[in-house]
Amino acid sequence: MAAFAEMAALAPQHKLLETFIGAWSAEVTMWMGPGQPQVTRGVMVNTSILGGRFIEQKYQGHGYDFQGSGLFGYNKSSGRFEGLWIDTMSTMMQMDTGDYDPATRTFTMVSEMTCPEMGAMTKRSLIKVHGPDRHTMEMYVGAPGAPESKCMEITYTRRT
């Protein structure tokens, strides 16, 4: 029982999750090929759940029918951050694992996924905390035999 109690106790890394709690305006820039990127907007609401162990994410796009949900937390067993994301663009569950660099205030999350057009791909997301009211997420994808490329950037600004 002592081992289970230790695993249930919060770690210092869980404090980092508090940065994301609240309602955020999102500006999403997506590069889907040559030419100008597509820019959309939405709102992300992040709520602390299960005693501060996880952040529950709910996203709603403005002016288009896009919704997403996620979970983000720190796994004391693996010593890594983990994320799960689902949305209305696909039926897959995207699962990421990664680390935090306190010097740059950046979470680096990586995963593998299957693209309907390109097949197996790698995904790397950089979540950088710029301050209490702003953070960004840059997403890069790579396919076998192709260089990694930036496909998305989201700027989150705290709503008042």
Account of the protein in words:
This protein is mainly beta. It has one domain: Calycin beta-barrel core domain (Lipocalin, Beta Barrel), CATH 2.40.128. The chain is built from 2 helices and 10 strands, in the order ααββββββββββ. It has helices at 2-8, 12-15; strands at residues 22-30, 38-49, 54-61, 67-75, 80-87, 94-101, 106-115, 119-131, 134-142, 149-158. It has a 10-stranded antiparallel barrel with strand order 1-2-3-4-5-6-7-8-9-10. It starts with a helix and ends with a strand.
Query: In one word, what is the shape?
Result: globular
Kindly report the spatial arrangement of strands forming the biggest sheet. Answer: 1-2-3-4-5-6-7-8-9-10
Remind me, CATH topology? Lipocalin
User: Quick one: biggest sheet?
Assistant: 10 strands, antiparallel, barrel
Cα-atom radius of gyration: 16 Å
Q: Which residues form runs of ≥5 with pLDDT under 50?
A: none
For the secondary structure, the number of strands is 10
Tell me the helix content. Answer: under 10%
What would the average pLDDT be, to the nearest integer? 94
**CATH architecture name:** Beta Barrel
Structural class: mainly beta
Instruction: State the order of secondary-structure elements, H for helix, E for strand.
Output: HHEEEEEEEEEE
What percent strand?
A: over 45%
Task: Indicate the CATH class.
Answer: Mainly Beta
How far apart the termini lie comes to 44 Å
Keywords:
Lipocalin; 2 helices; 10 strands; 7% helix; globular
List the topology elements.
Layout: H1 2-8, H2 12-15, E1 22-30, E2 38-49, E3 54-61, E4 67-75, E5 80-87, E6 94-101, E7 106-115, E8 119-131, E9 134-142, E10 149-158
Antiparallel strand pairs: 1-2, 1-10, 2-3, 3-4, 4-5, 5-6, 6-7, 7-8, 8-9, 9-10
